[in-house]
Amino acid sequence: MLQIKSIIRQFCCFIAIVAVLPSCKSDSSMDGSAPIGDQVGVGGSMARFTIKGDKLYTVSESQLNVVDIFDPKQMSVEKSIDLPMGIETIFPYDTMLFIGSNTGMFIFDVRDPSSPRMLSVYEHITACDPVVVSGKYAYVTLRSGRTCRNTQNILEVIDVGNPTSPVKVGEYQMEHPHGLGVLGQSLLVCEGDFGLTEMDISNPENLKKIGFVNDIHGYDLIPLRNKNIAIVTGETGLRQYRITEDGRLGEMLSEIAIQKSDAEEEAI
Protein backbone atom coordinates (compact mmCIF):
# COMPACT_ATOMS: atom_id res chain seq x y z
CA MET A 1 0.00 0.00 0.00
CA LEU A 2 1.29 3.45 -0.91
CA GLN A 3 1.94 5.59 2.09
CA ILE A 4 -0.01 8.82 2.26
CA LYS A 5 3.19 10.87 2.26
CA SER A 6 4.18 9.33 -1.08
CA ILE A 7 0.83 10.30 -2.62
CA ILE A 8 1.21 13.90 -1.47
CA ARG A 9 4.79 14.08 -2.75
CA GLN A 10 3.66 12.97 -6.22
CA PHE A 11 1.02 15.71 -6.47
CA CYS A 12 3.50 17.86 -8.41
CA CYS A 13 3.59 15.18 -11.10
CA PHE A 14 -0.22 15.12 -11.17
CA ILE A 15 -0.28 18.86 -11.89
CA ALA A 16 2.09 18.28 -14.82
CA ILE A 17 -0.10 15.49 -16.24
CA VAL A 18 -3.28 17.59 -16.06
CA ALA A 19 -1.56 20.45 -17.89
CA VAL A 20 -0.57 18.08 -20.69
CA LEU A 21 -4.12 17.00 -21.52
CA PRO A 22 -5.29 19.98 -23.63
CA SER A 23 -2.50 19.62 -26.20
CA CYS A 24 0.72 17.75 -26.76
CA LYS A 25 1.67 19.89 -29.73
CA SER A 26 2.13 23.38 -28.36
CA ASP A 27 5.67 24.55 -27.64
CA SER A 28 6.77 26.19 -24.43
CA SER A 29 9.34 28.53 -23.00
CA MET A 30 10.49 25.62 -20.84
CA ASP A 31 10.53 27.78 -17.75
CA GLY A 32 9.20 25.54 -15.00
CA SER A 33 7.73 28.57 -13.23
CA ALA A 34 6.10 30.21 -16.26
CA PRO A 35 2.31 30.60 -16.60
CA ILE A 36 0.42 27.39 -17.35
CA GLY A 37 -1.08 28.89 -20.49
CA ASP A 38 2.40 29.32 -21.95
CA GLN A 39 3.47 25.71 -21.57
CA VAL A 40 2.15 22.16 -21.64
CA GLY A 41 3.17 21.13 -18.16
CA VAL A 42 4.07 22.59 -14.80
CA GLY A 43 6.11 20.67 -12.27
CA GLY A 44 7.93 21.28 -9.05
CA SER A 45 11.67 21.08 -8.46
CA MET A 46 11.33 17.42 -7.38
CA ALA A 47 9.76 16.36 -10.70
CA ARG A 48 11.26 13.46 -12.65
CA PHE A 49 9.68 14.34 -16.00
CA THR A 50 8.87 17.40 -18.08
CA ILE A 51 7.44 18.21 -21.53
CA LYS A 52 8.44 20.43 -24.44
CA GLY A 53 6.29 20.36 -27.56
CA ASP A 54 5.92 16.76 -28.72
CA LYS A 55 8.62 15.39 -26.40
CA LEU A 56 8.41 14.02 -22.90
CA TYR A 57 11.72 14.01 -21.04
CA THR A 58 12.06 11.63 -18.11
CA VAL A 59 14.92 10.70 -15.81
CA SER A 60 15.57 7.37 -14.18
CA GLU A 61 18.34 6.76 -11.70
CA SER A 62 20.94 6.67 -14.47
CA GLN A 63 19.31 7.84 -17.72
CA LEU A 64 17.70 10.73 -19.55
CA ASN A 65 14.94 9.45 -21.85
CA VAL A 66 13.26 11.21 -24.78
CA VAL A 67 9.70 10.03 -25.50
CA ASP A 68 7.73 11.03 -28.60
CA ILE A 69 4.19 11.94 -27.47
CA PHE A 70 2.88 13.40 -30.75
CA ASP A 71 0.34 10.57 -30.84
CA PRO A 72 -0.57 9.71 -27.22
CA LYS A 73 -1.83 6.30 -28.37
CA GLN A 74 1.54 5.38 -29.85
CA MET A 75 4.16 6.92 -27.62
CA SER A 76 7.68 5.66 -28.15
CA VAL A 77 11.12 6.14 -26.61
CA GLU A 78 13.26 7.91 -29.20
CA LYS A 79 16.50 8.07 -27.29
CA SER A 80 18.06 7.15 -23.96
CA ILE A 81 21.19 8.86 -22.71
CA ASP A 82 23.26 7.13 -20.05
CA LEU A 83 24.24 9.21 -17.03
CA PRO A 84 26.03 8.41 -13.77
CA MET A 85 23.98 6.75 -11.03
CA GLY A 86 22.13 9.02 -8.64
CA ILE A 87 19.95 11.09 -11.01
CA GLU A 88 17.10 12.67 -9.05
CA THR A 89 15.28 15.58 -10.71
CA ILE A 90 14.72 17.44 -13.98
CA PHE A 91 13.89 21.13 -14.45
CA PRO A 92 13.27 22.88 -17.81
CA TYR A 93 14.31 26.43 -18.54
CA ASP A 94 14.47 28.20 -21.92
CA THR A 95 16.12 25.74 -24.36
CA MET A 96 17.80 23.69 -21.64
CA LEU A 97 17.20 20.91 -19.15
CA PHE A 98 18.79 21.09 -15.72
CA ILE A 99 19.16 17.65 -14.19
CA GLY A 100 19.91 17.24 -10.51
CA SER A 101 21.84 14.26 -9.20
CA ASN A 102 23.38 13.41 -5.85
CA THR A 103 26.81 14.36 -7.18
CA GLY A 104 26.11 17.36 -9.39
CA MET A 105 23.94 19.26 -11.88
CA PHE A 106 23.87 18.33 -15.60
CA ILE A 107 22.93 20.95 -18.21
CA PHE A 108 21.50 19.76 -21.55
CA ASP A 109 20.67 21.75 -24.68
CA VAL A 110 17.37 20.64 -26.29
CA ARG A 111 17.13 22.97 -29.24
CA ASP A 112 17.08 19.71 -31.18
CA PRO A 113 14.27 18.15 -29.11
CA SER A 114 15.03 14.59 -30.21
CA SER A 115 18.73 14.76 -29.41
CA PRO A 116 19.58 16.46 -26.10
CA ARG A 117 23.21 17.58 -26.00
CA MET A 118 25.08 17.80 -22.72
CA LEU A 119 26.71 21.19 -22.26
CA SER A 120 28.35 20.83 -18.86
CA VAL A 121 28.34 19.24 -15.41
CA TYR A 122 28.56 21.23 -12.20
CA GLU A 123 29.88 18.93 -9.47
CA HIS A 124 29.16 19.24 -5.75
CA ILE A 125 29.37 17.20 -2.57
CA THR A 126 27.30 14.01 -2.46
CA ALA A 127 23.81 15.08 -1.37
CA CYS A 128 20.14 15.13 -2.38
CA ASP A 129 19.90 17.80 -5.07
CA PRO A 130 16.83 19.50 -6.61
CA VAL A 131 17.43 22.56 -8.80
CA VAL A 132 15.44 25.50 -10.23
CA VAL A 133 16.55 28.24 -12.61
CA SER A 134 15.57 31.88 -13.08
CA GLY A 135 17.34 34.24 -15.42
CA LYS A 136 21.00 33.32 -15.54
CA TYR A 137 21.10 31.74 -12.09
CA ALA A 138 20.43 28.22 -10.88
CA TYR A 139 19.48 27.54 -7.26
CA VAL A 140 20.46 24.15 -5.85
CA THR A 141 19.67 22.72 -2.42
CA LEU A 142 21.90 20.12 -0.79
CA ARG A 143 20.64 18.38 2.32
CA SER A 144 21.69 15.82 4.87
CA GLY A 145 19.98 12.51 5.58
CA ARG A 146 20.37 8.77 5.58
CA THR A 147 19.75 8.48 1.83
CA CYS A 148 21.64 11.67 0.96
CA ARG A 149 25.04 10.71 2.39
CA ASN A 150 25.69 14.30 3.41
CA THR A 151 26.06 16.17 6.69
CA GLN A 152 25.53 19.68 5.33
CA ASN A 153 22.34 21.66 4.62
CA ILE A 154 23.04 24.43 2.15
CA LEU A 155 21.66 26.43 -0.76
CA GLU A 156 24.05 27.06 -3.64
CA VAL A 157 23.65 29.82 -6.23
CA ILE A 158 25.23 29.03 -9.60
CA ASP A 159 25.77 31.43 -12.49
CA VAL A 160 24.67 29.55 -15.63
CA GLY A 161 24.83 32.56 -17.96
CA ASN A 162 27.42 30.53 -19.84
CA PRO A 163 25.83 27.07 -19.63
CA THR A 164 29.02 25.40 -20.80
CA SER A 165 30.86 26.74 -17.75
CA PRO A 166 28.64 27.12 -14.64
CA VAL A 167 30.22 28.93 -11.68
CA LYS A 168 29.12 28.97 -8.03
CA VAL A 169 28.62 32.54 -6.80
CA GLY A 170 27.02 31.97 -3.41
CA GLU A 171 26.40 29.46 -0.62
CA TYR A 172 23.95 29.78 2.28
CA GLN A 173 23.37 27.67 5.37
CA MET A 174 19.84 26.25 5.61
CA GLU A 175 17.94 24.08 8.09
CA HIS A 176 17.04 21.02 5.95
CA PRO A 177 16.31 22.14 2.36
CA HIS A 178 14.16 20.08 -0.01
CA GLY A 179 12.30 21.45 -3.05
CA LEU A 180 12.32 25.10 -4.04
CA GLY A 181 10.69 27.58 -6.41
CA VAL A 182 10.96 31.16 -7.64
CA LEU A 183 8.18 33.73 -7.11
CA GLY A 184 9.25 36.94 -8.85
CA GLN A 185 12.11 38.31 -6.74
CA SER A 186 11.59 35.72 -4.01
CA LEU A 187 12.93 32.19 -3.68
CA LEU A 188 10.94 29.79 -1.52
CA VAL A 189 12.89 26.89 -0.04
CA CYS A 190 10.99 23.97 1.48
CA GLU A 191 12.78 22.85 4.64
CA GLY A 192 10.97 19.68 5.69
CA ASP A 193 9.95 19.79 9.35
CA PHE A 194 11.31 23.36 9.55
CA GLY A 195 8.64 24.67 7.14
CA LEU A 196 9.47 27.22 4.42
CA THR A 197 12.16 29.87 4.11
CA GLU A 198 11.64 32.87 1.83
CA MET A 199 14.69 34.62 0.37
CA ASP A 200 15.10 37.87 -1.54
CA ILE A 201 16.88 37.13 -4.84
CA SER A 202 16.78 40.63 -6.32
CA ASN A 203 20.57 40.46 -6.03
CA PRO A 204 21.21 36.78 -6.87
CA GLU A 205 24.80 36.95 -5.64
CA ASN A 206 23.78 38.28 -2.22
CA LEU A 207 20.59 36.57 -1.02
CA LYS A 208 18.78 37.59 2.15
CA LYS A 209 16.32 35.60 4.25
CA ILE A 210 13.13 37.65 4.50
CA GLY A 211 10.38 35.34 5.73
CA PHE A 212 9.47 32.02 7.32
CA VAL A 213 6.43 29.72 7.50
CA ASN A 214 6.96 27.37 10.43
CA ASP A 215 3.64 25.54 10.73
CA ILE A 216 3.93 23.24 7.70
CA HIS A 217 6.14 20.39 6.55
CA GLY A 218 7.63 21.69 3.28
CA TYR A 219 8.59 19.15 0.59
CA ASP A 220 8.08 20.91 -2.76
CA LEU A 221 6.08 23.70 -4.39
CA ILE A 222 4.66 24.76 -7.74
CA PRO A 223 4.17 28.46 -8.58
CA LEU A 224 1.08 28.91 -10.80
CA ARG A 225 1.73 32.45 -11.98
CA ASN A 226 -1.37 32.97 -14.10
CA LYS A 227 -3.44 32.11 -11.02
CA ASN A 228 -1.19 34.01 -8.56
CA ILE A 229 -1.07 30.84 -6.47
CA ALA A 230 1.72 28.69 -5.04
CA ILE A 231 0.94 25.05 -4.20
CA VAL A 232 3.03 23.62 -1.38
CA THR A 233 3.21 19.88 -0.70
CA GLY A 234 4.51 18.08 2.37
CA GLU A 235 4.02 15.09 4.61
CA THR A 236 1.36 16.92 6.62
CA GLY A 237 -0.73 17.80 3.56
CA LEU A 238 -1.14 20.28 0.72
CA ARG A 239 -1.66 24.05 0.85
CA GLN A 240 -2.43 26.86 -1.57
CA TYR A 241 -0.97 30.31 -0.92
CA ARG A 242 -1.65 33.58 -2.71
CA ILE A 243 1.28 35.16 -4.57
CA THR A 244 1.31 38.90 -3.92
CA GLU A 245 1.76 41.54 -6.61
CA ASP A 246 5.40 42.01 -5.61
CA GLY A 247 6.09 38.26 -5.93
CA ARG A 248 5.96 37.31 -2.25
CA LEU A 249 4.20 34.44 -0.52
CA GLY A 250 0.89 35.78 0.75
CA GLU A 251 -2.06 34.44 2.71
CA MET A 252 -2.96 30.75 2.85
CA LEU A 253 -6.07 30.12 0.74
CA SER A 254 -6.83 26.46 1.43
CA GLU A 255 -5.43 23.29 2.93
CA ILE A 256 -5.86 19.53 2.61
CA ALA A 257 -4.48 18.15 5.86
CA ILE A 258 -3.17 14.59 6.12
CA GLN A 259 -3.12 12.60 9.35
CA LYS A 260 -0.53 9.81 9.19
CA SER A 261 -1.24 6.51 10.92
CA ASP A 262 0.98 5.19 13.71
CA ALA A 263 2.42 2.62 11.27
CA GLU A 264 3.38 5.37 8.81
CA GLU A 265 4.97 7.45 11.57
CA GLU A 266 7.16 4.47 12.51
CA ALA A 267 8.12 3.84 8.87
CA ILE A 268 9.35 7.41 8.23
From TrEMBL:
InterPro entries: LVIVD (IPR013211), Quino_amine_DH_bsu (IPR011044). It comes from the Bacteria. This is LVIVD repeat-containing protein.
